[in-house]
Amino acid sequence: MFTIEPTYPAGNMTATSSDNMTCLFTIDDFRNKVYSTLYSMIAILGFVGNSFVLCVLIKTYQQKTAFQIYMLNLAVSDLLCVCTLPLRVVYYVHKGNWFFGDILCRVSSYALYVNLYCSIFFMMAMSFSRCIAIVFPVQNLNLVTEKKAKLACVSIWIFVTLISTPFLLSGSYQEGNKTKCFEPPKREQITHLLVLHYIALFVGFIIPFSVITVCYAMIIRTLLKNSLKKNQATRKKAIWMIVIVTAAFLVSFTPYHIQRTIHLQFLNREESCEDTLFMQKSVVVTLSLAASNCCFDPLLYFFSGGNFRRRLSTFRKASSSSVIQGPRKKLSLKEKDDEPFQESDNQTKFAI
């Protein structure tokens, strides 16, 4: 896994098109404006949203379930990422000049991509736990537990942080009177990067996306054929939650991985100036979309259902009375296990 960002020559880009005309344009202004604007918005919204969610989850941690543990780790991953985005904003506001030293350059690149793939794997884990809870409610008692959720989270953190270490190898460097960071690989590195890309694409995107797709297909099939038909509101709520999660996943991650694949192949060929400029602009847009997953995740917490809203109510009451009251009692077993979209009949109880 590695960063693919557009090429930014020090001066105007010169490329010969098919009609032998010389192109004297760069996307520097476009890149600097788009990145500085979007990263600023993502940093603010992501920090506020995830900080709020994290505060609620920590304050009500004694109510923890497997699903809430995944949510907690996802919020931590998002916050680690958004805390580095202001450094990127400063870099692009100053037209590609890095002021914060080599170590922070490496850490900033590393944090963005650790968050990218941690988010994908945490979403996969949450989708799998929901699928087990709905499709196999009896087995769910043993398969989806707090202990196993914690083990899964530790495994995801270790796996992603280790395989993302190549980002730490690429730091800042001097180019003219500017210190550069977040710049693209050299052309001679493309063959090696292609191998790493396809490994990352398969392990970090295709497999998790396939698991999520299968899980949601099984959930929808189960919801449509069982007694949840008796409660149209609950059934629609569950289905819309699946739609929102899938849409957020596709908007944030799919365009970036598709574009990265095309871009690496593109770098191996000589193309026209127009095609080169278009490809570079597409990198800016899709990388920003990938970073925006930090803003989508708090929405996922909200749409996960009444469990989070109940925690918010508990958080408010605790905040207003913590000085004069003792520790709150733990929720009953039924309340603790009441995950979003819970529905029961005489035979089966479903809890996502």
What attributes does this structure have?
single chain, 352 residues, two-stranded antiparallel sheet, 12 helices, 5% strand, globular, disordered C terminus, Cysteinyl leukotriene receptor 1, GPCR_Rhodpsn_7TM
Question: What is the strand and helix layout of this fold?
Answer:
Blueprint: E1 14-16, E2 22-24, H1 28-59, H2 66-82, H3 85-93, H4 101-135, H5 140-143, H6 146-163, E3 173-175, E4 178-180, H7 190-225, H8 232-266, H9 273-291, H10 293-303, H11 306-321, H12 333-336, E5 343-344, E6 349-350
How would you explain this protein's 3D organization?
The chain has helices at residues 28-59, 66-82, 85-93, 101-135, 140-143, 146-163, 190-225, 232-266, 273-291, 293-303, 306-321, 333-336; strands at residues 14-16, 22-24, 173-175, 178-180, 343-344, 349-350. It is built from twelve helices and six strands. β1 and β2 form a beta hairpin. The strands form three sheets. A two-stranded antiparallel ribbon has the order 1-2. A two-stranded antiparallel ribbon has the order 3-4. Strands 5-6 form a two-stranded antiparallel ribbon. The protein starts with 13 loop residues before the first strand and ends with a strand. 36% of the residues are buried. It has a single domain (14-350), classed as Rhopdopsin 7-helix transmembrane proteins, CATH 1.20.1070.10. By secondary structure, it is mainly alpha-helical. Mean pLDDT is 77; it is low at 7-22 and 326-352. The protein is globular, with a radius of gyration of 23 Å. 67% of the residues lie in helices and 5% in strands.
